[in-house]
Amino acid sequence: MEKYKSVPQGYMTVGEVAKKMGITVRTLQYYDKEGLLSPSAKTEGGRRLYNDRDLVVLHQILSLKSLGFSLDNIKEALVSLDTPGGVADALAKQAGSIREKIKQLSASLTAIEQLRAEVLQMQTVDFSKYADIIINLQMENEFYYLIKHFDEYTLNHIRNHFDKESGMAFMDKFQCLTDKILELQGSGIPVESEECQKLASAYWEMVMEFTGGDMSLIPGLIEAGKFEDIKNDWGEKQKVVNAYIGQALDIYFGKLGTVPFGEVQDK
User: Fold this and answer.
1) Which residues, in sequence order, are bridge partners of residue 12?
2) pLDDT exceeds cutoff 50 at 266
3) Are 203 and 249 in contact (CB under 8 A)?
4) Residues 56, 87: contact at Cβ < 8 Å?
5) Helix, strand or coil for residue 48?
6) Which of 90, 105, 184, 237 is the most exposed place for a label (fewest CB within 10 A)?
7) What per-residue string of b and e applies to 60-91 under the rule 16 or more CB within 10 Å gives b?
């Protein structure tokens, strides 16, 4: 009992603090050594003593550490607790960090659930496609689910010719074009009209932009473009676009005197 008589009222030993906060004595000693949390007092015998203020600081440290902050970052993030405003600022920063972590974890959970759904829809284990899906989920590409419909030859072409910026720009451009096609189709404009034929020409130019002129990619695009397994609004719209622009392209190629799809299929 004698050793506890030297501990002033309102102070705790390193062992008591460690037990209260669920950490080890060695961790507290390390934080002291690194200048993160020095004890507020020491006994005559040199034992570390902590008070309630130290517990609040320790809670800051442990919370920031759980959020992935390095010890150097934590040193910079610690806020003075000398005034009510300082305490409030510390709690506000900690709350902000927690909200950001929740946001990150929520995004990770969503990505995992989306990847799981895609994995179950794929007929074979394909880690290359899994990786592509993960990358597109991280890019927040809403069309990530299209990846499973492409064959490996087409995917290699996409990997080698498009980065995040150019890929998203292409999809935005494609969306604008398909919206115009849907508008014509919804207005009942005939596929042989000059207006529709201009869009057919623009559509084919986009196909050539995507393939870089590699006609061997066309069969894979045709197969992927059937959208049979895509049960969402975008997939349903693309089926309407394909049916309408397909007829327009037949007329367009007829006027040019060429049948590029047939030529590819005959090879």
Assistant:
1) 50
2) no
3) yes
4) yes
5) strand
6) 105
7) bbbbbbebebeeeebeebbbebeeeeeeeebe
d(CA 11, CA 2): 16
In the block, residue with structure tokens 């327009």 = 248
d(CA 37, CA 28): 8
**Tokens for 253?**
């190629």
CA pair distance 35, 44, nearest whole angstrom: 22
pLDDT in tens, 88-105: 776 787 788 778 878 777
Would you report the helix, strand and coil content of the chain in percent, each value rounded to 5?
A: 70, 5, 25
- SS3 assignment for 69-92: CCHHHHHHHCCCCCCHHHHHHHHH
Task: Provide the β-strand partners of residue 42.
Answer: 48
| 49 beta partners | 13, 41
Please report where in the chains the tokens 């719209």 appear, as a residue: 237
Residues whose CB is less than 8 angstroms from the CB of residue 120 and which lie 6 or more positions away in sequence, other chains included: none
Structure tokens at 6: 């030297």
- pLDDT tens, position by position, 138-156: 666 666 667 777 788 888 8
Mean pLDDT, rounded, for 207-213: 90
Q: Tell me the C-alpha distance between 196 and 251, whole Å.
A: 10
Q: Would you place residue 43 in the very low, low, confident or very high pLDDT band (cuts 50, 70, 90)?
A: confident
Measured between alpha carbons, how far is 178 from 231 in angstroms, rounded to an integer? 18
